[in-house]
Amino acid sequence: MPTAGPRSGDAIFASVERVNAELFTLTYGATVRQLLTDLEEVEEVNKQLDQMGYNIGIRLIDEFLAKSNISRCVDFKETADVIAKVGLKMFLGVNATVTNWDAEGTCCSIVLEDNPLVDFVELPDTCQGLHYCNILSGVIRGALEMVSMKTEVTWLRDMLRGDDSFELQVKLLKQVPEEYPYKDDE
Amino acid sequence: MGREVAESCVDSLLTEMVSTYCHRFYANKPELAARRIEAIGYQVGHQLSERFVFRYTMERPRFTDHLEAIKFICKDFWSELFKKQIDNLKTNHRGTFVLQDNRFRWLTRMSVDPQNESQDNSADGENKAAQATSMHLYFPCGIIRGALSNLGIPCAVSADISNLPACSFVVRIKA
């Protein structure tokens, strides 16, 4: 029997349960605001958002793999493409592009021109150091770690800081070879 | 149809937000965690209500009494969030309203912390799971309170889950 191939981000997004994006956007905004009140330091909020994203990413990867029907990527290039074209689309409903590859193929940028996290958001001057979307970089880092890729994910451009798009740099630090949990003879 | 995201985005965010406040920030002070989660819900409800009312009242007059505002929460507001209306509305006509959702989506979909779920049979595990569920419910309670407050109705909101998966929200309007 032929196995079904990977599914496109559009097809998955069309088939999953969806909700009003305002609920998501405002819930995220209210959470960030509450964290700013409770933690006071912008840098602490950045860390917390990244941690929350990481925790979400390590759980969301299962749903991603199950729904996308993607079994493995041949290299980091394919991985980045899959995040941009399938992952971001199937959860957030947005399109992203991959660009700015380095010569080794271990570092690239994912560019988003549209991002539901920041609809109706304006940062006050007191929050200049805030990486408002840090949860997203955390999600990507967490999800990749579950498929054996240690990465560093940083924001290079941010529309809330006046840039024309969001640019997320994903750098592969270490690829842990996949091992089977048990050996046959044990 | 407005913009949408996958439902798992909202589920994941809520689960993580609740867990951040309950386990990381206020592990030993559940009442403080509850207050923060409710406050986040309040802000969301307040803002959502502002947006939905604006759309809703473009062709209709503003609400003239409490019942009309509550009905707006039960029908239009709830449908925007959960694609269904509140199933049953009761009132004692003295400022208390009970809004029942027979199958509250956030209770059926949200995963409670697995370490609590795995301890089946143990009373402690059940207790913890019940506590986790009630923590999750501070968020929708806050949403309803925020939404009504935006409509000029100060109130207190609590949740009753004695009839799972049904969930009743008890709204007590402050005189």
Total beta strand runs of chain B: 5
Overall geometry of chain A: globular
Structural class of chain B: alpha+beta
Low-confidence stretches of chain A: none
Strand order of the largest sheet of chain B: 2-3-5-4
For the record, give the distance between the C-alpha atoms at the N and C termini of chain B, rounded to a whole number. 38 Å
* Topology of chain B as a string of helices (H) and strands (E): EHHHEEHHHEE
- What is the count of helical runs of chain A? 5
Main beta sheet of chain B = 4 strands, antiparallel
Please characterize this protein's 3D structure:
The complex is a heterodimer of chains A (186) and B (175). By secondary structure, chain A is α+β, with helices and mostly antiparallel strands. Chain A has a single domain, classed as Trafficking protein particle complex subunit 3 (Muramoyl-pentapeptide Carboxypeptidase, domain 2). Chain A is built from 5 helices and 5 strands; from the N terminus they run H-E-H-H-H-E-E-H-E-E. In chain A, strand 4 and strand 5 form a beta hairpin. In chain A, helix 1 runs parallel beside helix 4, helix 2 runs antiparallel to helix 3 and helix 3 crosses helix 5. Chain A is globular and about 45 Å long. In chain A, 39% of the residues are buried. Chain B has a 4-stranded antiparallel sheet, with helices on one face. With 175 residues, chain B is an alpha+beta fold. The radius of gyration of chain B is 17 Å and the shape is globular. Chain B is built from 6 helices and 5 strands. Chains A and B meet through strand 1, helix 2, helix 3 and helix 4 of A and strand 1, helix 1 and helix 2 of B. Chain B: Belongs to the TRAPP small subunits family. BET3 subfamily.
Summary of the model, kept short:
Chain B: Belongs to the TRAPP small subunits family. BET3 subfamily. Chain A has 186 residues and is of the alpha+beta class.
Tags for this model:
heterodimer; A: 186 residues; alpha+beta; Muramoyl-pentapeptide Carboxypeptidase, domain 2; four-stranded antiparallel β-sheet; 5 helices; globular; B: 175 residues; 5 strands; 15% strand; endoplasmic reticulum (chain A); Bet3 (chain A); Trafficking protein particle complex subunit (chain A); TRAPP_component (chain A)
